[in-house]
Amino acid sequence: MLSRLSRPRAAALCALPVVALVAVAALAPLPFTVARPGMTADVLGERDGKPVISVEGARTAPVDGQLRMTTIEATGPDADVRLADVVDGWFRTDEAVMPTDSVYPSGDDVDEIERYNAEQMRQSQDDATEAALGYLGRDPEEVKVTLRLADVGGPSAGLLFSLGIVEKLGTDLAGDAVVAGTGTISPEGAVGTVGGVALKTRAAARDGATVFLVPRAECRDALSELPEGLRLIPVTSLRGAVTSLEALRTGKGDVPSC
């Protein structure tokens, strides 16, 4: 003969599987990466005692300001990110929780990721050089550009590399200001999206920037947690970025905003 359970006891028994699932979820690693503001580097300056940008075959101009590329720091693809880390990251302004495959599209093998990021950086530097020399109408066979920033991976510094080359070759862009930014660059000078811009604006402000160049398509993300005193300038091309910075420096012409 079956006995009927009381309502409280039945509810308690039904809750057991739910509690067990919550416990498993809390303890199991999740497919997320926790990212934070990373380092920035002035592409007009030096890295390890050597210029980030060196030019041979053309006269270079002295510079007063800074053009700072920005990065994020992220937990590795093999890191154990738990539910508590994800929840904590959602409520913090100095961290972001991102799907692992959006940060590491090449997979979860650490060595493979490092090779992929290094190759992306090399390609970005080549594209940045081609875009800058093409914009200036310089012959790449007569002007040799060397970029040194080997300890940073990925393509997101492309725009700043191009701007740095343009400035080094005589076009004053930054003036005496600290300008930061992010964005990929194509050989034709088109600026592409990168991700993590809200964290990069924090890194830029931390390191003294007052202006931040952002791919126009990522304006909303950049505005979501914009540090006080940091001005956003949306860009879609190298030419547009140069025009905006010249207008900002001289006070002549319109400077777009997000």
From TrEMBL:
InterPro entries: Lon_proteolytic, Ribosomal_Su5_D2-typ_SF, Ribsml_uS5_D2-typ_fold_subgr. Residues 154-231 form the Lon proteolytic domain. One of its GO terms (molecular function) is peptidase activity. Pfam families: Lon_C. One of its GO terms (biological process) is proteolysis. Keywords: Hydrolase, Protease. It comes from the Bacteria. Its EC number is 3.4.21.-. This is S16 family serine protease.
